[in-house]
Amino acid sequence: MWRRVALALGLVASSSGASADGWRVEVLDPTAYPPEIVAETGDPAPNGLPDGLVARATAGDIRAAWYVNPTRRYGHGILGDAIEAGGLRVETAEGRVLALDLPESEVFEDRTPRLADLDGDGRLEIVTLRASLRAGGSVTVYGVAHGALVERGTTGFIGRANRWLNVAGIADFLGGGQQIAYIQTPHIGGTLFVYHLGADGLQRVGELYGFSNHVIGSTEQRLSAVVDLDGDGRPDLAVPSADRSILRLISVHSTGLREIAAIPLPSRLDKAILVEGSGDTLRLVLGLDDGRVVGVSR
Questions:
Q1: What are the strands, taking DSSP E only, across 72-113?
Q2: Which DSSP symbol is given to 32?
Q3: Which strand (E) or helix (H) includes residue 204?
Q4: Tens-place pLDDT, residues 197-235
Q5: pTM
Q6: Contact (CB, 8 A) for 25 and 288
Q7: What phi and psi values does residue 116 have, to the nearest 5 degrees?
Q8: Euclidean distance between CA atoms 228 and 286, whole angstroms
Q9: Running DSSP on this structure, what letter comes out for residue 31?
Q10: Residues 6 or more apart from 5 whose CB is under 8 A from it?
Q11: Contact call for residues 112 and 90 (beta carbons, < 8 A)
């Protein structure tokens, strides 16, 4: 649907630039950017996945988190192979390593956990993509309590095997903590969900249909960006449309999600989004599947 709308409006970017909703798309010199656009950094996860990394923090009660125990018990292979993680390890600020191992019916269908203070209490949570072999993916959050890893909240499994989801961003969209934005089923008409962590677990803020932030078989999970796009001082989301041919800019409110702009691209986005500058100098740099690099700015 989004591509048909874009073509009907004639908003196809070129080297001379095109605009949509006040935003401009310009083709950039690709030699000025590395092939991956945004380099992924981190230490390899000990006893982890072939491409798994350690997530690190410099403050809070947790210093590091990583996935362990590679397994082939789930054959989905959405990230390029059929090797997933069977466990999670967390290093605390005191240097203790805490362990959580999933039952044989589940895996972490992910590469690297994420560390964030979701409820604003100064203690970090671990955000994971946990999958059931029979019921598909979920976002599941863990924390440290009484010297052990405990589940703090989950979105619940999608309900069908080989159905996945991918985090689009974690940020303080609403104030008072950080919220989780993710795309459910990004390859078959994805829905953007935003959740916050409350006393009773993860609670939905809002949802909006028509997104994707992953290419089947790719290890790149960062086809989105968190940045203030409308100048209100709060972070927003830049996420591709379901066919990745349009960049959709989304703001998050306590009453739900609102689209700021929908910006057609000259080809499909397939690389991590680079954020350059801020405010009036803000530019999003996008790598496309035809080899071009474009900049999106006001």
A1: 84-92, 97-101, 106-108
A2: G
A3: strand 201-211
A4: 999 999 999 999 999 999 999 999 999 999 999 999 999
A5: 0.93
A6: no
A7: -160, 150
A8: 17
A9: G
A10: 262
A11: no
